[in-house]
Write a structure and sequence with these properties.
mainly beta, 5-stranded mixed sheet, 32% strand
Length: 443
Amino acid sequence: MRRLAVLAPVALALALALAPATARANSRYPASVSVSFRPGNDKDIYLGATFGLIISHDDGSHFSWICENALGYTGNFDPKYEVARDGTIYATNFKGLMVSRDGGCTFALATAELPVGDPGRFADIWVDAIDLGPSDEVWVATAEDGKENEVYRSTDGGRVFQPMGMRSNTIWWKSIRVAPSNPQRVYLTGYQLTQEAPDGGIIPPSVYLYRTDDGGAHWAEMPITGITLSNSPVILISEVSPTNPDILWVRSIGAARPAGDRLFRSADGGQTWTEVLVTEDALRAMVVRADGTAIAGTPSRGAFLSTDGGETFQPLATPPQMSCLGERDDHTLFSCGANFRPDFFSLGRSTDGKTWTKVFRFVDITAPLSCPAGTIQHDTCELRMWSAIKRQFGIRDPVEPDAGSDMPPKPAGCCDAGGQGGATALLVGLTALGLLVPRRRRS
């Protein structure tokens, strides 16, 4: 801590000398945090990062960057993304649900055109949970303190939403998942804040798990007996089996000391639970494949493989660092890895979950997404912020191959350096750009 204090004046001087205000993308170390795909398309990849959204339409050969401002947020926040078959991009937001129908050039706030008080309006309320059903029906759930939270569904591509009868003034809805093999089966989890009892006492926080078997017309509360909770209890739905709607997994956040999660499996639609995995770090990545193979991973404490339908897990011998995990329609696995050791990729590819190859690193960003003048993506992201992003990651403009060479020169920059020296160089550079300055995080 003393050494950082000594470095602070130097970092401030560098920031004043080198960093324009537009370079202050957020307050965290650059990292990839989510991966999404367009159903029915084996080329599109949508990589969520701590500094925006990065998109490839050619299976990872080229990646375009969308900045946070174009997505409707700034600061310490990671949207949850879903992509429909027609290419519509959905992104959760503290203000609601952002929707893009032009490939990411513009995002509009869903239901904002409706008057305040309309039952289908949830603009200006934090949408914390989203999932798409097999036919692209959109399910979202809100989690805003001091407001009435609800679950909503749209069957027309996110244009009109209907409330699903889960209105609550005390519960934040935290996760929602549609069973891939039965769109009428939907699971929902919620977190209730600490409440004051009628006698003046304190009602501790609690968690809820609900299930509907008829597309939201009726909901039944499921027991959580057998699920170990942390002192600040939150449970999230990690996966629902792609072939059996009765099999699902939930993770109990922070239930394993000092900073790990516990994973629980149910084979009867949430009636009973069995603990199947305990981790030493947050269990942020999980995929269950049609053949019953399951893979789960953490950002820094290993990844795990199950070959018995997710009933037991064994650690992988050489696990990548997993901050996200997803399976595309062509059964290719993609994982958010470390941009430095041990993985040296921000996005990796695998067929079996054991062996991974690099798809992308931040130095490989091709360009900002090209959009018309007058859009935030063009006027802010491309014209004002792109030059700072290029310097930060050492991104080079495309060049022709040298004569006699089959390959162009390898880009080199702060994020392409290997080992501890490269990480240290990036740390200093990011501090200079103001990217490691802490900001107040919204509850």
